[in-house]
Amino acid sequence: MTNRSPPRILLIGTGDTKADELLFMQRCIGGAGGEAVMMDISVLGDPPYAAAHDKHAVAAAADTTIEAVIASGDENSSMTLMARGAARLTRRLCDQGEIDAMIAIGGTMGTDLALDVALALPLGFPKLIVSTIAFSHLIPPERIAADLMMILWAGGLYGLNGTCAAVLSQGCGAIVGAARSAIRPRPDRPIVALTSLGKSCLSYMVDLKPQLEARGYEVVVFHTTGMGGRAMESIAAHRGFAAVLDLSLQEVANQLMGSVVNSGSDRLTNAGRNGIPQIVAPGAIDMVDFPAWLPVPTELADRPFHAHNRLLASATSRPADRRRIARAIAAKLSAMNAPVAFVLPAGGIQQWDQDGEPLHDPEGLDAFVTEMRGALHPPVELHEIEDHINDKGFAAKVLAIFDRWVAGGIIPAGVPHAEQR
User: Which residues contact 367 (CB under 8 A, 6 or more apart)?
Assistant: First the structure.
């Protein structure tokens, strides 16, 4: 939470084409009690105002010049270079304490750049993008920062109007409020990431969370319905965890099966890439998610089906697909640069795959377990158990591995409550 008044809001946009909108936002930020710090990301033209950080400074941060940016080839290559410079410069301003929040506006070009800027900023630093493509499937999951705020720039293609002004003013008010009230994470205990689905599908978190907290860890649970896994991967990419218990891999299966409910192609990679030890399990990899408000995908039309609510439904994948999913998981785990243990619950991997439930499919489960058993090799530890993933025996096995790794110095020791400040 910033104690500075007024909070300094970095305002990013192409001043040569969106000067009216940016100057309106500058006034809105001032009216809300903030101070706008202008960053111009124009390439060909110049804004009718003096930006605190002009296009030459942005290009220089990318180790180039605006002349070289113009000569780079086309608008895509030019804005890619400007995005590199804007991200570097913004992170530098953040680290030096010169800004308290960031807001950017754009269509596809400006949004493309702003997404890189947001990813460069730490969790808890307020970041908001006003975009004509907010919430669009044009934006891949891996481009979205864990705590990014977006608002649809309705009526924002060209020039100011009443609809556009209503949206821009809301965005400016929101970012000033966020700058005043946001609490940056300053954990006094090591942080453990835990992935899961809703308690009705995967319930191990009920046992694991209090047990880990009693051991002196802060436990952050991520809901693996696409953006939850994306948030976890984003934080892991910044080395934000002492350990990751990635026990729900449905997003990996969804991405492989072409579902829109996925977290991007780098799911199950960032922790290991950054030296974070992981305990992994195949929670819910047998389910392929799709929007419940659309027809069942043709390729899943004959499969067991379960509707969770009016937004989300799932059908089970075929045995051949589960073998393919197993191989993909094993390939990701084999590329890790940190210790990995895989717990394989042969008794089942989500609530509705049990006998009498709508997604019961023993042939498919056996295909996955058999393939997984053969696909994993040292140094990945394989721990096969007979329990169902929701049985207490599964949680006990995860905790036993966790405790052994703490004793061996692989995972930092927790901080008992009495030692916390």
Answer: 319, 320, 322, 323
